[in-house]
Amino acid sequence: MENFWEHLQNLTDAQSILSKGGFYLLLIVVFAETGLFFGFFLPGDYLLFMAGLLCSSGVIDVPPFMLVCSLILAGVLGNFTGYWFGYRTGPILFSKPDSLFFKKRYIVIAEEFYARHGGMALILGRFFPIIRTFAPIFAGVVKVDFKKFTLYNLIGSVAWVCTFTLTGFFLGRKYPQIKSYLIYVVIGLIIFTTIPLLFAFLKKKVVKELKN
Fold first, then answer.
1. What is the tally of structural domains in the chain?
2. pTM
């Protein structure tokens, strides 16, 4: 339990994370999590929120408009990369053995999410870990119309970045003391993004058991 809290405290040290590469590391993380299959474990939601929060206090010395636009661009390029990867590899992904950074069930999760929500999966999926990474890859695998993909990609990136980054920015402006409670913010974000996936998993399991 002590190690768990220590890990969370390390995650809340956003200044330490960003000091390793600053603003540019932030862009790389967002790009990787939204398009590279090994980036699914990266804390995208958390870093977007923290970027807005630290921008409001001047720790990140970048104008808010430039911060948001750069993050949106990184998210868009990440999804394009994921789409291209899925388009080029296709069925090979399903025959690829599971490893630490890739598991076939992640593609299956993205496939089921896409089947349920259609093109909107590329927008809604931005707000859920794992799906955020693998939805564009799956879209490439099934060769979703590129023009439609581009539209959903742009809308999804704008919605995702603005929601978390601007929330962090305006909360930081209105409640500067929120930085003293970052560990609770992290826990809240984890719960917010995990519960829907957990609910979907349990629902699928129940339905499967009923069929059997």
1. 1
2. 0.76
